[in-house]
Write a structure and sequence with these properties.
The structure holds 2 protein chains of 2 kinds.
Chain A (H helix, E strand, L loop, with lengths): L15 H18 L2 H27 L6 H19 L3 H23 L4 H21 L1 H4 L12 E4 L2 E4 L3 H24 L1 H11 L1 H6 L4 H27 L9 H14 L4 H17 L7 H15 L5 H11 L4
Antiparallel strand pairs in A: 1-2
Helix pairs in contact in A: 2-7, 2-8, 2-10, 2-11, 2-12, 3-4, 3-5, 3-10, 4-10, 8-10, 11-12
Chain B lengths: L4 E12 L2 E12 L3 E5 L6 H9 L6 E6 L2 E2 L5 H8 L1 E3 L12 H13 L11 H20 L15 H13 L5 E5 L7 H17 L3 E5 L3 H7 L2 E6 L2 E6 L1 H6 L1 H8 L2
Parallel strand pairs in B: 3-8, 3-9, 6-7, 7-8
Antiparallel strand pairs in B: 1-2, 1-4, 4-5, 9-10
The chains are: A mainly alpha, B alpha/beta.
């Protein structure tokens, strides 16, 4: 079969840049368009987008299914919360520390876990969430046990004499949006780098990747740590937004939500994760109108997803993107 | 040390339970040589390959490449640091990726100085990838796959996939390539092309080869020296025309 590129794509007007501009304007104007409740939902979506981005590096690009994201999310939330409550450190210090602590803890956890094969690895990562919750509950002197950490201060920035406290939902929205955009750019940079190509090679065929000199094990460990950094950063924003962190931050429901965002949005695509986090947080919020049927309806939506959108929404987004880009 | 010898595998043994898959086999490959490894099914050829290239760990024996002991190195390290590459019988290409991506991936670890540097997106990194792409395109042309270079590799025929795999192995300027049944299941026209490509790599690029192959015509036309394995042991070694006449080899194949 010799399919050549015989037809040059007929170029219509490229609408991608105008659309991106419109999306940016909508994102910036959102707090003024929607109600406070919508802004709140968008903040939650932006917070969950970060661990989902990290998980996408693992699941979508490297081909490793992990349920540990909630554990690293919780570690990040506790790190930021403890720093803020105990030492009153500024927000960005807490955020960086949360990322670093989560990433660093992923090293000793990843070394044994990544020795395991597929399903055993998944079970092992599931264990991390349970262990995390048990530690948060029982290490009372550090975590205050079931009481959790409360009255975590609103994020504040300080530089010399200048300081600013992010209070109010709108201000927090812009903070979350900034972090979300930076996080998305970071993932973009990782997957566009040669390392991103090696990750895809590992996903496609690990032995073949080995045979062309790719140290697959070390890559998997690094990606596992990177995914934990994203989760930790997300956790720190979460802690500062809710101002409360409890052992319930370590819950399987969060891990599955993150996984649903990635798989539903489209594993191995960045736009899919962005779209997925908006959609799924939007969906859970929308379903609050029927509290009794909420979880049933949620489950039903998931069934629709697996049956009709096997690759998530990414193929649809890509087709749309190609269409407005003028390609045939 | 004999400086003529590029790869020297000595007294290699590997058992699976009570079965001795490879039993005290020694093989060497000289610089610039194309050597063949033949033997009936189950004679231990693939196990021998795996243990020599780091996919499996030999129970005993040593593997020396260019005078350096590489026994126990991992598959990826042998490829990266030793520039000894191997092919697989079944897993051939990254099926979902196009040919050009396949080749760029195959060259990356040889261009970037460290694992961390592969995370870079700077100018150096872009230039390195551009150079790889350039080389990939040359090799794609050489393999006669230019027209299909942007198709997913999995869409191509088995023979074309073998050509892609072969081109991938030439990306890093290897010292030696071990081929595991490169002609299995491909049509005669492509066999011709694979043979030509192997010759070209050997003559023009100075790559040495060890080839496992069942197609006896290919073996006799390509190899300067042939080693025969039978039931995990080295049976004979010699010129291809002598080997095919050897009664012991005939007996091994026809069953004694």
């Amino acid at each position: 079969m010799t399919l050549t590129e015989t037809t040059q794509p007929i170029r219509k007007r490229d609408l991608r840049i105008p659309l991106a501009a419109i999306l940016l304007v909508v994102a910036l104007a959102a707090p003024f368009i929607g109600s406070r409740y919508v802004t709140h939902s968008l903040i939650i979506a932006l917070i969950f987008m970060l661990p989902a981005h990290g998980l996408n590096l693992l699941v979508g690009y490297t081909g490793l299914l992990s349920l540990a994201q909630a554990a690293f999310f919780g570690i990040g939330a506790y790190t930021a919360g403890l720093l803020a409550v105990t030492y009153g450190t500024p927000f960005y210090v807490n955020l960086i520390a949360a990322g670093l602590v989560s990433g660093a803890l992923a090293l000793p956890l990843g070394i044994p876990a990544l020795r395991l094969r597929s399903t055993s690895f998944v079970m092992c990562t599931l264990g991390f969430v349970i262990i995390g919750q048990a530690i948060a509950k029982n290490w009372v002197s550090l975590t205050r046990g079931d009481m959790g950490l409360s009255s975590i201060p609103k994020p504040y920035f300080s530089l010399g004499p200048w300081s600013y406290t992010v209070s109010g939902t709108t201000a927090f929205y812009y903070l979350a949006l900034t972090i979300g955009v930076l996080g998305t750019l970071a993932v973009w940079a990782i997957v566009r780098s040669p390392a991103g190509r090696n990750m895809i090679a590992i996903r496609e065929n690990e032995t073949l990747a080995e045979s062309v000199g790719i140290p697959t094990w070390r890559y998997k460990l690094i990606v596992f740590m990177l995914s934990a950094v994203f989760a930790g950063v997300g956790g720190s924003v979460y802690a500062h937004y809710l101002t409360v962190v409890s052992p319930l931050t370590f819950q399987m429901y969060y891990s599955t939500t993150m996984l649903i965002i990635v798989l539903g949005g489209g594993a191995g695509t960045i736009s899919g994760v962005v779209f997925g986090s908006l959609l799924f947080v939007g969906l859970t919020e929308a379903l609050r109108i029927t509290p009794e049927l909420r979880m049933i309806a949620y489950g039903f939506c998931l069934l629709i997803l697996v049956f009709w959108f096997k690759k998530g929404f990414a193929p649809m987004i890509n087709r749309f993107w190609g269409m407005i880009g003028g390609a045939k | 040390m004999n400086h003529l010898r590029l790869l020297e595998i000595s007294n290699l043994s590997k058992s699976y339970g009570a079965v001795k898959a490879v039993d005290d086999v020694s093989i060497h490959i000289n610089r610039g040589e194309i050597a063949g490894l033949i033997g009936p099914n189950g004679s231990g050829k693939s196990t021998f390959f795996d243990c020599s290239t780091g996919l499996g760990k030999p129970d005993t024996g040593t593997v020396k490449l260019d005078g350096q002991d590489i026994t126990g190195w991992s598959l990826n390290r042998i490829a990266r640091e030793g520039r000894m590459l191997r092919s697989f019988q079944k897993t051939v290409v990254f099926k979902a990726l196009d040919i050009e991506e396949n080749l760029v991936i195959a060259g990356q670890m040889f261009t970037f100085p460290s694992l961390l540097s592969t995370f870079g997106l700077g100018r150096m990194s872009r230039q390195r990838v551009a150079a790889l792409r350039e080389r990939a395109r040359d090799l794609i042309k050489m393999a006669g796959l230019w027209e299909v270079r942007h198709l997913p590799a999995g869409n191509l025929s088995g023979g074309q996939q073998k050509l892609i795999q072969f081109a991938s192995m030439l990306m890093p300027e290897p010292k030696i390539i071990l081929l595991d049944e490169p002609m299995a299941g491909i049509n005669p026209k492509i066999i011709e092309r694979v043979v030509e490509t192997i010759r070209y790599a050997n003559k023009s690029l100075g790559v040495s080869f060890l080839v496992i192959e069942h197609n006896i015509d290919v073996v006799t036309s390509l190899c300067e020296r042939v080693v025969v394995l039978d039931q995990g042991k080295k049976l004979v070694e010699g010129l291809p025309q002598d080997i095919i006449q050897d009664p012991r080899v005939r007996e091994a194949y026809l069953g004694g």
